[in-house]
């Protein structure tokens, strides 16, 4: 792990996002005190954490494996951190009641964890981590073991609880959709480094590297060469098959440099019925052959071959008025240069 | 659709008993029974049948009579020996727990490499005969044994301590022999404790001691229950070690039974003693079961 430096604003939802092995869990464990950085420092509320064991850090933690104590009831689990802190009995009862209400588990006080579903156990773990008002709530892929529907539901619930309590959350996930849904800010990690930190929309609309463009959402990549600067950060580029297009440079480029252009599938539109794409300097366009059409319900995804230039996957929202394209048909495509991100690429 | 969603959908459907499924289940249980059969036959031939024979012999002495049982309860020495047997067994069990629990804890929490090495050390004594090991202890603990030689050489005692042929010797020997049973039973339960739970306890503010006392210890209770039960029951029937390392007053019930069989040739009386031991063991087990509620603990419930 190198050069991981982030500042998490108090009361915000911050996510460390990355593929497995990117160092996100290690970072979280260092904050929690279960792993130690060889160099560098961690501050919580301005207090240095170095040399402090986990139990003295006052950070709530929710684990992927729930880690709910199997021999204690729901109420005993939630009371655990308060009993450790020797809170008065009446205070414990009140706080446990509030925490149960927060995670909507009233009436479950006397149940044992094995009588609960995975989602319910995770709520107990959440209530237990919040009940002692920790300075930061750390969450390590807490929804990873839940099925898809429940996960989506829990994401919103977690977000609401976080906003309700104004608690600072440091969240770890490999699920980019989850990160975008819940976070105020996201740090994308790769190979022990931070690739980019930003709000979800910044990461999606203005990725700073092809890795982020690929990892967050989905991108088409066209390899080419930067030809000339067009002003305002725009560059004219030429793809391998001669297709010329405009894009916005994510980092400063030089003429003649090898680049990769990233375009989101939903930003590329097929031409209208007349087969015409509105001409204009600001629009990129090309012609291709529909190789494959995949109906996915809300939209249809087409893979359009561009010959030697490569291929583009486009996503067209399904409306009654839209004319489906069939495989083998010729189609003209158009997309905006502002939605084309250019990244330097190692020369082949 | 993912398989998880499919599973949840099918789970919502009320299960309808399928006759072909039921018969398949029956075939399945038959197969289990067939697999068990050799063991059951062996148990019947080598355990149940001889046991019945012992029970029969205990009440048969040239005609059916309860004379042997009457003698056990009439002559004080037999009940005294039984009481002593239970006392020594209880002490050995406590010693094994006191020594074995920390050892199992180290085994379960240290690095896997170290754990493997320690495990070999724990299991190694099983490769040697119990008689050899008992004689080894006698060499160590005897009046001129190594332990006493060192103690006097270091000036800790002026005359050799009596470490052998008394209750202390019996306790040392039996604890040594039975310790691995305790360690292995407790260790296997400790291995099943999710280390994440301890980490969770720390994250919630628990110190090492608090995490141990409130989380680890309660979760290891099934191991303690199983280990103490196993060691106690094994202790009750112990013979070689107390016979070799104990004094004249440290007679255990198994030694008494052996004497009746070998020396007085009173097989009926020996059988009666064995039956009384078995009955008391069962009573003890049931009482223990009531207190600890073993079947719940074995299922991992508090």
Number of strands of chain A: 18
Name the shape of chain A in a single word: elongated
Tell me the distance between the termini of chain B: 39 Å
Runs of chain B with pLDDT <50, length 5+?
Answer: 1-15
Can you tell me about this structure?
The complex is a heterodimer of chains A (348) and B (302). Chain A has 348 residues and is α/β, with parallel strands linked by helices. Chain A folds into 2 domains: 13-211, P-loop containing nucleotide triphosphate hydrolases (Rossmann fold, 3-Layer(aba) Sandwich), CATH 3.40.50; 218-344, RNA polymerase II/Efflux pump adaptor protein, barrel-sandwich hybrid domain (OB fold (Dihydrolipoamide Acetyltransferase, E2P), Beta Barrel), CATH 2.40.50. In chain A, 24% of the residues lie in helices and 30% in strands. Chain A contains 8 helices and 18 strands. Chain A has helices at 24-32, 74-84, 89-102, 118-130, 148-165, 176-182, 200-205, 210-215; strands spanning 13-17, 43-44, 47-48, 59-62, 136-140, 168-173, 185-190, 193-198, 220-231, 234-239, 244-249, 258-263, 269-270, 284-295, 299-305, 311-317, 330-335, 340-344. Chain A has a 6-stranded mixed beta sheet with strand order 4-5-6-1-7-8, with helices on both faces. Chain A has a 5-stranded mixed β-barrel with strand order 9-10-11-18-12. Chain A has a 5-stranded antiparallel beta sheet with strand order 13-17-14-15-16, with no helix packed on it. The longest helix of chain A is centred in the middle third of the chain and has 18 residues, at 148-165. The model of chain A has no long low-confidence stretch (mean pLDDT 89). The interface between A and B is medium-sized, with 32 and 24 residues.
In short:
The complex is a heterodimer of chains A (348) and B (302). Chain A has 348 residues and is an alpha/beta fold.
SSE blueprint and pairings:
The complex is a heterodimer of chains A (348) and B (302).
Chain A: E1 13-17, H1 24-32, E2 43-44, E3 47-48, E4 59-62, H2 74-84, H3 89-102, H4 118-130, E5 136-140, H5 148-165, E6 168-173, H6 176-182, E7 185-190, E8 193-198, H7 200-205, H8 210-215, E9 220-231, E10 234-239, E11 244-249, E12 258-263, E13 269-270, E14 284-295, E15 299-305, E16 311-317, E17 330-335, E18 340-344
Parallel strand pairs in A: 1-6, 1-7, 4-5, 5-6, 11-18
Antiparallel strand pairs in A: 2-3, 7-8, 9-10, 9-12, 10-11, 12-18, 13-17, 14-15, 14-17, 15-16
Helix pairs in contact in A: 2-3, 2-4, 3-4
Chain B: H1 3-12, H2 19-58, H3 67-74, H4 76-109, H5 112-123, H6 130-141, H7 146-153, H8 167-191, H9 195-203, H10 208-236, H11 240-245, H12 253-262, H13 267-292, H14 294-298
